[in-house]
Design brief:
Number of strands: 7
Structural class: alpha+beta
CATH topology: Alpha-D-Glucose-1,6-Bisphosphate, Chain A, domain 4
CATH superfamily: START domain
Number of helices: 3
Radius of gyration: 15 Å
Strand content: 35-45%
Oligomer: single chain
Largest sheet: 7 strands, antiparallel
CATH class: Alpha Beta
């Protein structure tokens, strides 16, 4: 069985250190209502969006200026038959230099087209990474979910 994990890549002029810091500033690009630590190995944080989605992430790999990996400890969607899609998946941010730019390769391991949430998750991750995280890195201001939408 082949796996088709969701991956998207951005290139920025900023340094790997700046990209790493922005990735770990999850409140700055994903949601302002993240609760818990988002920077150190074994930190856990929770995300929620209205009554639609909530999850708990644990940082299982943190290599400054190179890589951040989250484990989805718990997940709930109110719009899927299997409310726990994502549980046990990993989400990685790989940072490298490419053509004198900093490349950030985002991969949601296990997020496959067969998942019921795939169309929504694909579009959401694309927006958060390609727009919000990109803008946080390049301009200092991302586009996270605000407190009023949570």
């Amino acid at each position: 069985m082949s796996h088709h994990n969701f991956t998207t890549t951005i290139l920025v002029d900023q340094t790997p250190a700046e990209a790493f810091d922005a990735i770990n500033n999850v409140r700055g690009w994903w949601s302002e209502v993240i609760e818990g630590g988002t920077e150190r190995l074994n930190d856990e944080f929770t995300y929620h969006f209205k009554d639609i989605h909530r999850c708990t992430m644990r940082l299982v790999e943190v290599v400054p200026k190179e890589r951040v990996v989250w484990l989805v400890v718990d997940n709930y969607f109110n719009f899927t038959k299997d409310h726990s899609e994502w549980t046990g998946n990993k989400i990685s941010f790989e940072i490298a230099i490419k053509d004198n730019k900093t490349q950030i390769k985002f991969t949601h391991w296990g997020l496959e087209p067969g998942y019921e949430c795939y169309p929504i998750c694909h579009d959401s991750w694309s927006k958060y990474i390609n727009e919000s995280l990109y803008n946080l890195i390049t301009t200092g201001k991302g586009e996270p979910n605000g407190k009023e939408t949570a």
